[in-house]
Amino acid sequence: MPDFLPTLPKAQRAFLVGVQTPEMPDGEGEELLAELTELVENLSLSIVRTTLVRLRAPSPALFVGKGKAEELAALAKEDGAEVIVFDSALSPAQQRNWEELAGMAVIDRQEVILEVFADRAHTREAVLQVALARMEYSLPRLTRAWTHLSRQRGRGAMGGEGETQLEQDRRVVRDRIAHLKAELAQVVRQRGVQRTRRVRVPVPTASIVGYTNAGKSSLLNTLTGSQVLAENKLFATLDPTTRQLVLPGNQKLLLTDTVGFIRRLPHGLVEAFKATLEEVLVADFLIHVVDITSPHFEKHRATTLSVLAELGAGDRPVVDVFNKVDLADLLEKRAAKHSVPDALLVSARTGEGIGALEERCREMIAHGLGTVRLLVPHDRYDIVAKLHALGHVQTQEHRDDGVLVTGRFPPSQHGLLEPFILKAPEPRKKARA
Ligand SMILES: Nc1nc2c(ncn2[C@@H]2O[C@H](COP(=O)(O)OP(=O)(O)OP(=O)(O)O)[C@@H](O)[C@H]2O)c(=O)[nH]1
Ligand SMILES: [Mg+2]
């Protein structure tokens, strides 16, 4: 395993800067700053101050104007801060300028998210994905006054003569990126093999997606009676977990819990997690979970939908679910219904609405395919049993030449059913029967 970037030193004093521009809806800067606060707290940094800057337009050198930057830097020093955290993304040059000006580490929201992910990553796949995203983030930033790599300097002996420290660092990072990509590809191939095995027993699949902390893992647990880690912290889940759920009528469904999304998720991280999120792309449908108690749920929904689009899963059929309805008041319920009339209101905690969600899942599976008619020979009763387990059987009729079944079945099973599907309707025969 390659050596990874060390994570940000803990227990530093952090000075947080949020930004509100005229294009942003009122209050959004505040909201994002509150979210940044939560992210930073997750890194066990102590926050000395949070401040919101109103900005007419970003300026190229420091993002905010020079005067404002100097004022902020002085304030941060006065507060005894050791790191300034910007909510907006800083370009490598802006970050460098800021560090020169402030004489301390300056990081942005993207780097904070990468750090949180690095903290949470446990499985090999997640560790590799996060390491890759962090390496790519740091590549154009190696000239920073403060860098993760600075502690590893001195390993430069391996560089050729005349190669500057920076060139050496870049080479080391590029090598590691190549290495990580190769290793990741290997892990993904391995998982692909596992999935192929699963596809041979074709059971419809659904993925639970949504903003971080919406209750995705809790919902998986409630639906399937399992014990996946669910915690009141951001990004508790990084690795997809799949469990089988048996819906009413003995309909089986494989449910996958996935990593949560957040606003301004670093693009590199989305890229790195694409492989893991393949589960989302191959799912027959998605269950989009939204925390009904969040005053910003519209933003959460929009973020999830845009990340899904970025992943190429924008066209998957979706079941919309508002979770934590046990905590919601009438107004919140009304707002949710108004926003997404078709949505189900559930509580993973109390089980309220879970029956309706199961029923909706059953309908999704049933609608996955148009109605088909199959004639299954009597010696293939195993297929008839499968149809009941996997799809939505509407009629079943025992005839001399076999069992005539009509119903709807998920697309993933077409291969299995193909030999038994009746192409042409048989109206006359049916009329006589
Ligand atoms: N009151 C209430 N709390 C809930 C409900 N569902 C989840 N929670 C709580 O919300 C927090 C987040 O739940 P998780 O299931 O970990 O959320 P998640 O969407 O998987 O979060 P990440 O994996 O971090 O993206 C936990 O503290 C849960 O106990 C619910 O229906 N009602
Ligand atoms: Mg989770």
Per-chain topology:
Layout: E1 13-20, H1 28-42, E2 46-54, H2 66-78, E3 83-86, H3 92-102, E4 105-108, H4 109-120, H5 124-138, H6 165-199, E5 205-210, H7 216-224, E6 241-247, E7 251-257, H8 267-273, H9 278-282, E8 285-291, H10 297-311, E9 318-323, H11 330-339, E10 344-345, H12 354-367, E11 372-376, H13 381-390, E12 392-399, E13 402-408, H14 414-417, H15 427-432
Parallel strand pairs: 1-2, 1-3, 3-4, 5-7, 5-8, 8-9, 9-10
Antiparallel strand pairs: 6-7, 11-13, 12-13
Bound molecules: guanosine-5'-triphosphate and magnesium ion.
Residues 210, 212-218, 230-232, 234-237, 260, 323-324, 326-327, 347-349 line the site of guanosine-5'-triphosphate.
Key phrases:
433 residues, alpha/beta, Rossmann fold, Alpha-Beta Plaits, 3 domains, 4-stranded parallel β-sheet, 15 helices, 13 strands, elongated, binds guanosine-5'-triphosphate, binds magnesium ion
Description of the molecule:
The chain has 15 helices and 13 strands. The strands form 3 sheets. A 6-stranded mixed beta sheet has the order 6-7-5-8-9-10, sandwiched between helices. It has 3 domains: 13-121, Rossmann fold; 203-367, Rossmann fold (3-Layer(aba) Sandwich), CATH 3.40.50; 372-432, Alpha-Beta Plaits, CATH 3.30.70. Helices cover 42% and strands 18% of the residues. The longest helix has 35 residues, at 165-199. The chain is of the alpha/beta class. Helix 1 packs parallel to helix 4 (109-120). Strand 9, helix 11 and strand 10 form a beta-alpha-beta unit. Magnesium ion is lined by residues 216-217, 230, 236-237, 257.
